[in-house]
Design goal:
The chain is mainly α and 152 residues long. The chain contains 7 helices and no strands.
């Protein structure tokens, strides 16, 4: 097969070059990003609660305080015992911890963490030596490990 001498091939431009292609690529990247951002900002500005309040993004803020008041039983017990430790002594707090665990076995899995917290608080209130004198085998000696861990 012979080629005619009149046939000339046009030089091809390499792909990916040229100002039009570069502008198209830039737009293809920037445009979706801008659409997503503007849509997100528009959604946050809409008053979805239906009330006439001027505040933005406060539809669920009123429910937060109601949920924060209800705390887990172990947190309530820990706070009560820490207060008792400050007002009376660590021995009384440990006794009441043991009584509460016996009365409500569901709190047993939190006994060690509560006893350690009591040990740390006792060191802060009474110093390491005096806090250690209150140690007893409540919750596998976690009170004593809380005292020892706070000193280190």
């Amino acid at each position: 097969m012979t080629h005619s001498a009149d046939y000339t091939q046009k030089p091809r431009r390499a792909r990916g070059q040229g100002p039009a292609r570069r502008a198209a690529r830039t737009l293809a990247f920037v445009l979706p990003v801008m659409l997503v951002l503007s849509g997100t900002l528009a959604v946050t500005r809409v008053n979805w609660s239906g009330s006439d309040s001027d505040s933005i993004l406060t539809a669920s803020a009123q429910d937060v305080s109601a949920r924060a008041k209800s705390r887990a039983p172990q947190d309530l017990l820990r706070d009560r015992l820490l207060q008792e430790l400050q007002e009376e002594n660590p021995g009384t707090a440990l006794t009441h911890l043991q009584q509460e665990i016996d009365r409500r076995p569901s709190l047993a899995k939190h006994c060690m963490s509560i006893a350690k917290a009591l040990g740390r608080a006792a060191v802060q209130a009474y110093g390491p030596a005096r806090a250690q004198s209150y140690a007893r085998p409540v919750c596998d000696t976690s009170f004593a490990s809380g005292v020892a861990g706070f000193r280190a």
